[in-house]
Design goal:
Elements: H1 2-18, H2 21-37, H3 50-75, H4 87-92, H5 96-110, H6 113-124, H7 129-136, H8 140-160, H9 178-185
Helix pairs in contact: 1-2, 1-3, 2-3, 3-7, 5-8, 6-7, 6-8, 7-8
Length: 193
């Protein structure tokens, strides 16, 4: 069954793009519902539907992000409440790995959406260029050039950017584990065709 084979990969993709496991769980349901609705349009790569599912997941994450942005803009019109400081955030800020992850998330959020998509699919999800091309709806050569530029931009941004303060959180889209985040900057090229 397609859900049993690919739900974990789609869940991991959604979690990395949103930075939230709870949101990823919700999005997986939406992705497979949409896949069922569009089952006549399936595009297989090497007899696999995963790249096609990543394409649906990418559009679902984008839609969720736009909805969240509209919601945040609406909330800005409400009066702000005074919030007591959270001491747990002060303790977490002292951990070096958390600081590095925050810096990398900031750098990742400053990348263009196309760069975020290609890094997520090729580096963290492990797709080759052809499969990523199907998921992104672009030619294979475009995936190669985007991935190269995205790696260079992420490396440059992660070594020069300062982490944001807790009052101005970045758009969550980086992976949740610091070891995975560090490997994004210095990973090997995606598999060749």
């Amino acid at each position: 069954m397609i859900f049993d084979r690919h739900s974990e990969a789609v869940r991991a993709y959604c979690a990395r793009r949103t930075g939230s496991l709870d949101t990823a769980e919700d999005l997986v349901s939406i992705v497979f519902l949409e896949a069922w609705r569009r089952r006549d349009d399936v595009e297989l790569v090497d007899d696999g539907a995963l790249p096609w599912l990543y394409g649906i997941a990418r559009r679902t994450v984008q839609h969720r992000w736009r909805t969240t942005q509209r919601h945040r803009r609406a909330l800005q019109h409400l009066p702000t409440a005074v919030i007591a400081p959270d001491h747990a955030e002060q303790v977490a800020a002292r951990i070096d790995d958390e600081r590095h992850l925050t810096q990398l998330r900031e750098a990742f959020s400053r990348l263009r959406p196309a760069d975020q998509d290609v890094l997520t699919l090729c580096v963290w999800q492990g797709l080759d260029y052809a499969a990523a091309a199907v998921a992104l709806g672009v030619p294979v050569g475009t995936v190669r050039s985007r991935l190269s530029r995205a790696r260079a931009r992420l490396h440059a941004l992660s070594t020069t950017s300062e982490p944001r303060t807790p009052e101005a959180p970045a758009r969550p889209s980086a992976p949740s584990r610091s070891s995975t985040a560090r490997s994004a900057v210095r990973c090997a090229p995606a598999r060749e065709l």
